[in-house]
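Handout, section B. The chain below has 322 residues.
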Amino acid sequence: MHFSFQHPIVPSNHHYHFSNKGLWLGSCFAENIGSKIINYQIPAWLNPGGIVFNPILIFKQINFALGSNKNHNEYIFERDNLWFSYLYHGSVYDQNKQDLITKIEAINTSLLLAIKQSKYVVITWGNAWLYQLKSNQLDVANCHKQAQNLFSKRLVQPEEIVKEAMKTIGLMREINPDLHVIISISPVKYLRWGAFENNLGKSSLFLALDLLQKTIKDVSYFPSFEIMQDELRDYRFYNLDFAHPNEIAINYIWDKFKHWMYDEPTLNYLQDFDQLVLKINHKTLHPSSSPHQTFLSKLAKEIETFKLKYPQVSFDKIYKTV
């Protein structure tokens, strides 16, 4: 007996090995799943320019990295003796304008390298609402806590999203012809705009996704939004803001994603990794007891076996993250 609708997931035509490099871009949900990838020491780049929720701005960041636009100055501004860029997250800032430009160029270098070397790119769209600077109609990825009367808000139409997506995917595939594109729509709710506005923005994304998959080949979709809405249809799976999935929900969607995304050797690796970390984290009330000493002896042997089986894993990083 099921008490929720089990959303069917279309099987992926691509299954990746844990040695394959990947790029993760987009909303905070991309951060949630992408950070798990990095924690498992699967090679990945995660939002080099910070979180971005609107697909148009995600594609603009990519285009900057690919060299189609080098005009940083139109996006850069000063606030409270700090320099920011309207194209990037608030974590990208500096006390000096030129130093900020240097940081942005490093971001672009990292993003370009990721596009060249990745087997896949996962792009998570958050919502289709977009802020613009009123003074010059510049699309912004982040308002950087400035007065809202400086900005206007518009709903990006599906055709505009598809146009930018096709152009950007085409440019990426010019330098990496085999790059597989995976789109996901974030289950995060943007309730500060209102429930109707949130749903309207999500609807534009779904219409764009449908058009994109009909227009360009080898673009896959992972239904994180539907899993959250259909299978975890209860506010106990959200944080206290009733907008962001909580840890239980993230882990549930991650379990679905990993079986959709990875090949059998990688699934075995993830399981071995989890079991070993669980044992490393084991706490005892009696550290000097003979049963615990036997446990430690067995654990040491298991660690050596794991190291031989997966020599790419850095145990220094494991001990730092557990």
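Note. Residues 264-322 form one domain. Compare this with the example in section A.
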